[in-house]
Amino acid sequence: MLDENPGKLNLRPHHIFCDRFLPLEELLRGEEFARTVDKIKELTQRNDLMISVTEGPDHVCQSCPDYKNGRCENPVGNEEAVRKWDLKIIKGLGISYGQEITVGELLELINEKAPLEFCRTRCPWKTICGIFSR
Fold it and tell me: How far apart are CA 89 and CA 41, in angstroms?
């Protein structure tokens, strides 16, 4: 569960990047997941909030019904597939695991580099992603 006012969030790369563009209502992962994503979106309105780029499951994963036995078990992409996507995203953004970066700095990177090559060619969610209509 998230603190009401954390000094730092641990987020994996696709949650840093993709959650900005995917419509929550399309994901249909339950109320707890929706509340977590809404809370993270609210917290990331603070440009000074630190984000720690996390390898593997993060705050968002823990509220997802597809998170089982410490890993993603989504039928569209399990933990191994998601880790490959995460790696493509950090490479595309030019950041690294363990790096701490402010929301403001991340937004600058995302605005500068989006859509990533991964978005255009490999993303399984591109038909519902808002990145191409911004």
Answer: 19
What pTM does this model have?
0.86
Coil/strand/helix, residue 47: coil
Bridge partners of 51, per DSSP, are 9, 101
Instruction: Check whether 111 has a pLDDT greater than 90.
Output: yes
Proportion of the chain in helix, strand, coil states, percent, rounded to 5: 45, 15, 40
Question: From start to end of 1-134, where are the E strands?
Answer: 8-11, 50-53, 67-68, 71-74, 77-78, 100-102
> Between 108 and 19, where is the model more confident?
108
Say if residues 118 and 92 touch (Cβ distance below 8 Å).
yes
